[in-house]
Amino acid sequence: MPQQPLADIGLIGLAVMGENLALNIADHGFKVAVYNRTTDIMRKFIARENPPGGLVGCETIQQLIAAVKRPRKFIILVKAGPAVDAVTQQLIEAGIDTDDIVVDCGNSLFTDTIRREKQYADECKFFGSGVSGGEIGARFGPSLMPGGDPNSWQHLRPIWEAIAAKVDPKTGKPIETATPGHPVTTGVPCTAYLGPNGAGHYVKMIHNGIEYIDMQLIGEAYWLMSNLLGLKAPELSRIFATWNQGDLDSYLIQITADILQQPDPMHMGDYLVDYILDTAGQKGTGKWTSTNALDMGVPANSITEAVFARFLSALKHERIDASKPLTGPTPSYTGNKEQLINAVRDALYCSKICAYAQGFQLMREAQKEYNWKLDFATIAAIWRGGCIIRARFLQKITDAYTRNSDLVNLLLDPYFNDQIKTGQTNWRNVVSLAATNGLPAPAFMSAMAYYDGYRSVRLPANLLQAQRDYFGAHTYERTDQPRGQFYHLDWPEPSRPQIAIVKGAGGGH
Ligand code: 2AM
């Protein structure tokens, strides 16, 4: 019997993401060897789907290794955490070469990817690639965020560029015409090499943090319009559909319009959204972003606020009990309806700019911390298609960083600055309305606090430093003296002030 040609890549882990990614790769004419710990799942997958490009079912890790061309490339798509190490160890024990490339495409914490790259360096090239776009993205074109050894990237690149989502080179808009067996083959791929070790998984984590705040902002817009204007789901759906024609054009706004017009399958004439329990779940990647912001000392307050908003939503029982004793105003709005809808739109857009500014600030800081050189224009560009946060807006971010790759903060780009100038009166009115009507809008409010804090020459931290010096002799610097000179006042005896220059910085709290 003639020998079957070897597969271009192997894939381990045939849950939905793994299956769909394998089918996507095969649709692009690559041969994929697939393996799953539970063999029956692999057999059923092969029996169900065997595209002409080719899937090769492997029953053991040894078979998988024998089925793939050198340098061998393996995608691991198993649950993030110990399973990734378990599978990598299995590959190593089964005899892969030091030049073989093991790509973790799961939602791994970037520090694990950094650790794994080092830990397995003598046995293989461990590589991390973020994948965004959910099941549909994996099947027809995800946004792929690769990070690892640059030489390994050259081997992965043809497959990654083929299977990634594509955007129109002129408009930057996603080309979403793929169907099984008919992939999109033209356009600019939503993938690019992002840097060594954990850079890809880091950027994916930031993507997810931004996704949290994007969703929270949309939720607040929906909630304010629904409570202040008494609008029902179908009308709200039409508003979001209209917004989707303009600057807010994005996947998340589009699905919001779809969701809001979905009738409830159990109550004729009602809408499903009104029956869905208001407690949000999470898988933890938003928390990772927030933890990273705290670790690095970056004020990503809106991203963090979005995570807290989910936590608060989960306290459903407590909220029900608290709703009785804890009072507040009854929402009422008597102004112009169209004006308020426009104002909420502007509030959403201005807040979104601040949220993305925070996400990019995190990446700016991380590249110093982890010794990467991240290209922000490229990162925004590969998020234009395939991923959950895909949006027209991302082309604007690409443009901003193309104009100035050293941009200190997105807010300082002329386009974004202009947008906030235009929208901020409406934004402030919406935040005020939320406050006076007792409606929680933590994302709108925190984004505004970020904007106003960031543009403030002075903040009340002078008083804070005084307090720290008062109770803990933590010292302070003075506005009329050079930076780096630290002072301490003997506070408890204010009638006999004594100033002493203290060398070196003070301690904690
Ligand atoms: P399974 O079908 O045998 O459970 C998502 O959980 C995917 O990861 C599944 O394909 C699952 O295989 C696989 N997986 C989870 N833990 C694993 C492990 N420790 N080793 C190998 N595969 C694992």
Give keywords.
single chain; 509 residues; alpha/beta; Rossmann fold; N-(1-d-carboxylethyl)-l-norvaline Dehydrogenase, domain 2; Single alpha-helices involved in coiled-coils or other helix-helix interfaces; 7-stranded mixed β-sheet; two-stranded antiparallel sheet; 11 strands; 50% helix; binds adenosine-2'-monophosphate
Q: How large is the share of residues in beta strands?
A: 5-15%
Overall mean pLDDT stands at 95
Main sheet attributes: strand count, strand direction, barrel closure: 7 strands, mixed
Class from secondary-structure proportions: alpha/beta
Bound molecule kinds, no repeats = adenosine-2'-monophosphate
**Strand element count:** 11
CATH superfamily of the largest domain: N-(1-d-carboxylethyl)-l-norvaline Dehydrogenase, domain 2
The H/E string reads EHEHEHEHEHEHEHEEHHHHHHHHHHHHEE
* Percent range of helical residues: 40-55%
Question: Mind telling me the CATH class of the largest domain?
Answer: Mainly Alpha
Identify the overall geometry: globular
CATH third-level topology of the largest domain: N-(1-d-carboxylethyl)-l-norvaline Dehydrogenase, domain 2
The first-to-last residue Cα distance is 74 Å
Strand neighbour order, sheet with most strands: 3-2-1-4-5-6-7
CATH architecture of the largest domain: Orthogonal Bundle
Low-confidence stretches: none
Radius of gyration: 26 Å
Count of structural domains = 3
Q: What's the tally of helices?
A: 19
